[in-house]
Amino acid sequence: MTSPKKFFSRYGFLLFVLSIIIFRFLYSLSQEFWYPNDEDVIQIYLIGLKSFTTHTFPYFGADVVYNASQIPGALQGYLVSIGWYIWKIPEAPYIVLNILLTLSLGFFAWYASKRLPDMSRIFIWLYVFFIPWSICYFTRIINPSYVIPGAIVFFIGIFEIYPSTKKNILPEWLCFYFLGFAILWIMQLHMSWVLLGPFTALAFYYLLWSKDIRRIAGRSISFLAGGITTGILLIPTLTTFGISNGQGKSVSAMAEFHPEHITELFKLLGMYLGYACFDLNRFRALNAADSGRFADLFPWAIPFMYIILITGFAQALWLVICFFRKSKNDPMTRRIANIAIAGFIIFFLSSLFSHIVPVSHAAVLFFPLMVLYALYALREPMKKKWVRIWLYSTFASATIFYIANALDRYQTVSMYKNRDAIVKALDQDNYKLVGLRRYEK
């Protein structure tokens, strides 16, 4: 009989990962659905529900509410609805989303562990799966959540193509396939796909610089193959409607020059850093209107929220310091930092051409870039015992906060506030029992 010690040493890491996956799935079921102040979640859900119950092709994805247009492509609709073709229950989209995120985040954690063999594998997986943006936002049925799998393979491809960051963990042809796949994936989900253009252009610059015709041709074919893989769901929309939706509105009308957004520099920097930090304010600000009610219901969670808040500010400050830090003993951190800085510059410059000042979820595709940068920045501090104790304590505090947050949302805004309406909609093939799409109102 295998002793508990031997069993844990052999299967402990798998049990650890499995426990994270189960926790994330249960948390996702508590996420907002019937949300009175923001209907984005239910609208994304309705894209798939309408396609499934009416047996129609979902030509368009998420709404661009600022000019009443829609993002072209069927990917969003099928990512939401595909689970119902297997199991017709309201939770099916959550199951599919969690499978997508588990595979992509697991791939990213594996890749980061390969790049950082001297860092604890458990810490890396915790960081990737358990920081607030990863669990509090990406487990929602919302289009930026579906962006993350594409963003992960894109930036892994970039890291393995650029000569300064290349580790030869993956073959180069596969990395160019990732770039094409990711761009056409994200293009059908969120307008932020344009932010990937400069990174892609530089990847092809390095390719052309090699002057190896055979290599250039092979990598270009890989890139096109990746684009075709996901872009095939965009073709019916383009051939039927062009880039405008059924009401004649186009997402291209969102591009306007707004130089006044230059004053938002530090706000955007805070958002950008928050993707890789314990960004509590985005998910439950201590000074929010409902903070008193939350404190009355879950007083035991408040001290742990302050621990998370302090850690988040300290992390953000350290990431800024590392932007300017030079280390002869760790040149790779400097190289990753340079790409992270370039990402912020692209994000900031793009904001000058946005109809509105970008909100915090506007550039979540930078999540994998910022998380890898944060892991590199933490390599040196993590060698100190007190830092390890503090960060692991913060993860424990975060777990307590997540439980309180899930209990609160489950009772007030989750799908289970009126699950029966979704059951009836599926049984009667009538999505309108759940709600109407914006353009139908």
How is the topology of this model organized?
Blueprint: H1 4-28, H2 40-54, E1 60-64, E2 69-72, H3 75-81, H4 92-115, H5 121-130, H6 132-137, H7 143-161, H8 172-187, H9 197-209, H10 213-231, H11 235-241, H12 265-274, H13 281-284, H14 291-297, H15 302-324, H16 331-351, H17 367-377, H18 385-412, H19 419-428
Antiparallel strand pairs: 1-2
Strand order of the largest sheet: 1-2
The biggest beta sheet reads:
2 strands, antiparallel
Instruction: Please count the helical segments.
Output: 19
Helix and strand run? HHEEHHHHHHHHHHHHHHHHH
Measure the end-to-end span.
65 Å
Number of strands: 2
- Can you give the mean pLDDT? 89
**Category from helices, strands and their pairing:** mainly alpha
Helical content stands at 55-70%
Task: Report strand %.
Answer: under 5%
Q: Unreliable stretches, pLDDT < 50, 5 or more residues?
A: none
Indicate the radius of gyration in whole angstroms: 22 Å
Q: Give the overall form.
A: globular
Structure description:
- The chain has 19 helices and 2 strands.
- The chain has helices at 4-28, 40-54, 75-81, 92-115, 121-130, 132-137, 143-161, 172-187, 197-209, 213-231, 235-241, 265-274, 281-284, 291-297, 302-324, 331-351, 367-377, 385-412, 419-428; strands at 60-64, 69-72.
- It has 441 residues and is mostly helical.
- Strand 1 and strand 2 form a beta hairpin.
